[in-house]
Specification:
Elements: H1 3-20, H2 27-38, H3 45-57, H4 59-69, H5 80-94, H6 103-117, H7 122-136, H8 147-163
Helix pairs in contact: 1-2, 1-3, 1-5, 4-5, 5-6, 5-7, 6-7
């Protein structure tokens, strides 16, 4: 499992425990314990802390976005796994550096977490909610291509122009 994927899984487990305890437990202690237990020697612990800090700082806004995007599902009725997979995905989609975590990566990672830890329909639910929000944002990064691909396209265009 890739490091960031593992970190997201650990953060999901930590948020689950915190949320299960009505958000009264010390989240930092939960995250620290889970990082030590499930990710010893992880090479990007700062990514975990940035993710947790960002989710907590923006939690109210993120929860409001979930409420708006899934009005037929009151936040309290969404399973704890799905709710926190959405929080992770939405934090990365809305607030993370897009150069570091492109929007489609944020969505796909949240879907994978939901499939791995949630119920049978969790992946579809997360995909539907995040897909709706992504479209409402105007599909940022949709037309972005890797630099190599852009250079290849420019070279092909130049060759085509020479043929004309």
């Amino acid at each position: 499992m890739a490091t960031r994927q593992l970190v997201r899984s650990i953060i999901l487990q930590s948020l689950y425990e915190w949320d299960f305890q009505n958000q009264k437990a010390d989240l930092a202690k939960i995250v620290e314990r889970n990082l030590q237990e499930f990710g010893p020697g992880i090479d990007e612990p700062e990514f975990a802390w940035k993710l947790v800090k960002g989710i907590i700082e923006h939690k109210e806004d993120i929860d409001n976005v979930i409420r708006k995007a899934a009005p037929e599902w009151p936040l309290e009725q969404i399973s704890i796994v799905d709710r926190n997979a959405l929080r992770i995905g939405l934090y990365e989609l809305l607030y993370a550096d897009r150069a570091e975590v492109p929007p489609k990566v944020a969505i796909n990672e949240a879907i994978e977490i939901a499939k791995n830890y949630g119920g049978i329909n969790s992946g579809k639910f997360i995909n539907g909610v995040l897909g709706t929000i992504y479209r409402e944002l105007g599909e940022p990064g949709k037309d972005d291509k890797p630099k190599e691909k852009k250079n290849e396209d420019k070279e092909k265009e130049s060759e085509d122009k020479k043929k004309e």
